[in-house]
């Protein structure tokens, strides 16, 4: 931090003619941290904190605070400083709770929130299809909050947690509790374990892992310990398997390599006994003596490792964020800064709005005060006894995206392939998952039946297809049903239409022949003008068949029943009338001549035909009114097809129309049967008994075919 302040003070563009000052406090304990916070709140030149009625005119000893480094201490500091809206920028407190602005309105940080780290871990698991994992967290605020966030997000993405445990703090490798936890990992047979822990607590845990001789497992680490020297220095840790972890994504400034603290640390790296040191801002400050008796910022360890360089760069970024906020607040863009008094709340607003470039890195904060920064995905590599880490991918935010370079990954497995970590193997296409127990990742596979499909968004239920769709068994999609109706162009339609057309041509030909010979005895004996009524009724009955071809419409569905029923009734009535006339002439006229006279005088044939037709028309009208036939789609005919048809009229009126024609047919047959003993030329009942054998031309009228039988009627005397 001292190097950064001096660099800014020597800059001619950032805060020109303004000199930054600073105080450095040791936060090696909770009490020291609170004492340092209260010292910051003390007004200039005083050792007490005056409570004002408004924070707008509050003048603290410092206008901004950088740090502290631990989550536990940052929660305390942020709660106090937020009351006075004094901006605080932490460089290593990543717990997600600090993003809540209603609790910590003045807190910002130059390290990504653990929420982003959790997202990166979930995307990493999804990339390698690891759905059966163990989840461990350290027994502190960092580990517990990260564990909760990770558990929530893993559950939302169908990644099952086989075991969830808390790594106890203040334990060593001889702890029975740690040994019990490691044995559980061996028993549940998971290949991937996520360790969301601080490095101090992670070290004894991995010492136990080495003692229990666990090999071939994948360990997913968080940014706190994945590059920490104290962890990878554990003897024998190179045999535990593949370690892949998160590291803060950044381009470290080479200028830091030339700062005095850095050079001093490098110079003392070869010395085993360094002088007293300022506790500085190390995350391992709990292992240092709390003293201010040093003359320089020197660590009590060897030269800083890669982990320390990233922490130093976060401090570097935090100081520059404060400087840019002051630069904007004092209006230094014109080249001269204002000498107005600066209040912390004013500076807080400007820091939230900063957006500047720092050594090719864009620095800005979101609405929660979190820096928009991603992670590098690193992997441990052992080249002989030497340890190293390689960047094998990255995670970027806004939008969230994970990229992995598979060629850079060296898995510590026999075949150098990514280990598989699943509870159950994936189902085949079109098979749903039948969950076993409480874990969704443990399941058996059941084929989806016909008419259903497996939607990839829900692998645990077969979705039914729509009414106009179908699907075979084990399907992952539905298909449109084929719409079927009797098309005019179908070959079967032509096969049916051809005889109908020929029959209608025959009827038309007969009508022409009868019309040309209307006055001949043959036509008169066949019924005279009644023949045209019979032929017309037969033609109408045949034309009703055309209503069954083509796509059904409301008109064709309504017309086809009345058209056929009424036409057939007219035809049967005409045949019945003609047969009755023959019987009257040869039989009834002798016994009851008055009956035949009344029949002819009151136009009996016309009345009978009209009356019977009117009854049928009334029945058809009732049938159409009660239950009209309409076009419908028949989905039950076939699984793959939809049949377009007219709805069947099942009302009593529709049944009555059929019954009426059946009764009329029976009446026609009965009347014709009465003439079985008539002379041969007038016997209408012998047609059903034997085929015509005489050369005389016969025309037989039947209910279905509608033909006329020419015969000779005796001309009645006037």
From TrEMBL:
It is found in: Cell membrane. Keywords: Cell membrane, G-protein coupled receptor, Glycoprotein, Membrane, Receptor, Signal, Transducer, Transmembrane, Transmembrane helix. The keyword Transmembrane applies. This is Taste 1 receptor member 1. Residues 688-697 have a biased composition (Basic residues). Its main location: membrane. InterPro entries: ANF_lig-bd_rcpt, GPCR_3, GPCR_3_9-Cys_dom, GPCR_3_9-Cys_sf, GPCR_3_C, GPCR_3_Ca_sens_rcpt-rel, GPCR_3_CS, Peripla_BP_I. GO terms for molecular function: G protein-coupled receptor activity. The chain crosses the membrane at residues 494-518, 530-551, 563-586, 606-626, 658-675. Residues 701-718 have a biased composition (Low complexity). The keyword Lyase does not apply. It is a multi-pass membrane protein.
